[in-house]
């Protein structure tokens, strides 16, 4: 039986009876128990005609209206479907039509675009902005959403639902039951991550690391791309996987040791990728400051990936001794600029954030 509707609050379909009525009722009851039903289901895109582009959870770990709030506000049709915004492949790549910046409806041809924006060639997007995009944040969001959408391929099949907590992607009472049981243990809290203090590119990078979506050598080889080696380009000691880059590589071990020391955290062992990504959930840091530490954790994951890319692709070898200070500076910038109630001091943050935070933050 096909069920039409959505788990997001502003779903256009709100019947007073039937399966969706009961599912939505169940959603509220589970939320009271700390289980977010919306985060457990994800849309599987077929033809994209029954999935809300901005409001459904179908790409990147959370609805696009959450990941890209500025662009969502500027879409002239915020209730559009995925099929209306999916990129199409350009037939001829010889002509690059310019973007009509004077038009209210901006048909962005990838290959050209707002200044500083270099999207992948060969794709045409059907954006319909209510005005021209021009601020740095808007262009940044456009760049990130374009990167996410560039792998989207529509098919003839109808859109369907996937249950994200089971390897089979199929919802069964048994799989739901085991998930609810697992939530009784503190280590399993917060299955999805999206830190509002961070720019979308950092959140997306973490989501990619969690879901094996980064172009690591192992992932590229699995897609049939021929490489001269699938071993880590930094240490050559193992196959280059996400777990190796972010947990086991010598560079990662050194950086995490420095991060834990910086935050005065002891007796924490990072055994696998899950431990690293969810470090802020179980590190001994007072609840209201753990989201700041999560900024540091996600920034570190991003910095390790950036260091790996610069080591592999850049002519100039990046300096390992600068990674930690880069992480400190970037995380300070994001926490202090995006969390309005904070009043952080750079020197304190740099030297001893754990002791500085309680006195420097005017949090309720
Ligand atoms: Zn390595």
UniProtKB/TrEMBL annotation:
- State if Transferase is listed as a keyword: yes
Its recorded name reads RNA-directed DNA polymerase, eukaryota, Reverse transcriptase zinc-binding domain protein
Instruction: Name the lineage.
Output: Eukaryota, Viridiplantae, Streptophyta, Embryophyta, Tracheophyta
- List each copy of the Reverse transcriptase zinc-binding domain by range: 171-256
UniProt keyword list:
Nucleotidyltransferase, RNA-directed DNA polymerase, Transferase
What InterPro entries does the database record attribute to this sequence? Answer: RVT-Znf
Q: Which GO terms describe its molecular function?
A: RNA-directed DNA polymerase activity
What is the source species?
Answer: Artemisia annua
> Does Transcription regulation count among this protein's keywords?
no
Superkingdom, natural source: Eukaryota
